[in-house]
Amino acid sequence: EPVRDAGRRWVDWFGRHRAILESDVIHGSSRRACGRWLDWVLHANPNLDTPGMLVVYNPTDQELVAELPLDLYYTGLEGIVEVTRDAGGPQQVRLDASGRTTLPVVMAPQAVAGFVFRRAD
Question: What's the Rg (C-alpha) of the chain?
């Protein structure tokens, strides 16, 4: 992919998600970034239509599969929540009484993925 196309793709992605990406950040990994496992951050703002966005990065040269423990308390979401990965279809996850859940992810080598969290209708 030419550099200009990649740059345009990332600028467009940021523009679509600007409000949540400029909101508070919660670093989610239980360990320091080491280049051998997934690194992820959760953006949270209960005042937005998209109150949560998880951004996951796989720095390795191999596919990684994990169940990420998420605390969505600061998103203001409760009960059943809709989560959408990048341009994929929405799925639903259930939050416990404390706003926590686990999210299964499969990450391609050296990939970045965004997971958008919204109130389920």
Answer: 14
Both tokens of 38, joined, read: 């997934």
DSSP per position, 25-69: EEE--SS---SSS-EEEEEE-TTSSS-EEEEEE--SSS-EEEEEE
Contact residues for 1 (Cβ-Cβ < 8 A; gap 6+)? 9
**Distances, alpha carbon 7 to alpha carbons 1, 20, 54, in Å:** 10, 20, 21
Q: Which residue has the tokens 């596919």?
A: 63
- The residues, any chain, with a CB within 8 Å of residue 114's CB and separated by 6 or more, are 13, 17, 53, 54, 55, 56, 85, 86
One-letter identity of residue 57: Y
Angle at 102 between CA 97 and CA 106, to 5 degrees: 160
pLDDT digits (tens, 9 = 90+) for 52-100: 999 999 999 999 999 999 999 999 999 999 999 987 889 999 999 999 9
Locate 117 and state its tokens: 């969290």
